[in-house]
Design a protein that fits this description.
By secondary structure, the protein is an alpha/beta fold. It has helices at residues 17-28, 40-50, 64-78, 101-126, 150-170, 187-192, 199-209, 218-229, and strands at residues 8-11, 32-37, 54-58, 83-86, 132-137, 174-181, 240-243. The chain has a single domain, classed as 3-Layer(aba) Sandwich (Rossmann fold). It contains eight helices and seven strands; from the N terminus they run βαβαβαβαβαβαααβ. The protein has a seven-stranded parallel β-sheet with strand order 3-2-1-4-5-6-7, sandwiched between helices. Keywords: Oxidoreductase.
Amino acid sequence: MYKLENKVAIITGATSGMGKAIANSFVANGAQVILSGRDETRGNSLSAELGENTVFVAGDIRIPEYNEQLVKAAIHHFGKLDIVSMNAGILGIGSVTDLPDELWKNTMDTNLSSIFYLSKYAIPELRKNEGSSILINASIAAYKSFPNHPAYCASKAGALALMRQMAVEYGPEIRVNAICPGPVDTPLLWNSAKAFDNPKKAVENAANKTLLKRLGKPNEIANLALFLVSDDASWITGTAMTIDGGILNA
């Protein structure tokens, strides 16, 4: 039996990196999925690749009404909502003194406010179904600071605080958890490395600082995400799980 058979999910940030790997995993395990992203070409291509159990809805997660639209799409196309997996994120690179106010706001809206918006509209539907869950893709940046990433670090720490609050508020009906990836080989990691003088060297250093001496792979993050939203994790809520190759212990 597939782990997510008869489950309906919304996945944000679904068109690249970890979000795309999670989308592939959820569909392969029987879920019907609303795919969210800004790039309509990539989104439609992914939906065509994954098949009839997916619908792509293009839009900007910083806008509350778009998040409401995602929930309505799940109900319209698949009749219910069981899982919300939030993966969209941007970096907002620049020191506190250099970072433009608009980029700070954009980063917080994308990485944190969007979680609030989507949860606000999803929770009434999630509460209707036993075993529902919310999963937030945070980061080790919630614990460990990096140069020129003030907005990113602050938004990810805020995401964990919001996760814990929602777990308290909506248990036992809904499980709410987060994952905190370390350096994973995605476009976001390579963009993050641009904050350093030698981006390629920065990525190599990040890999070497892990106890496993390599970057993570998107499918490895997807494996943890699948576990946390499945019934295998039925007694886990209010938890942030680090998946970082041991870099926080290095």
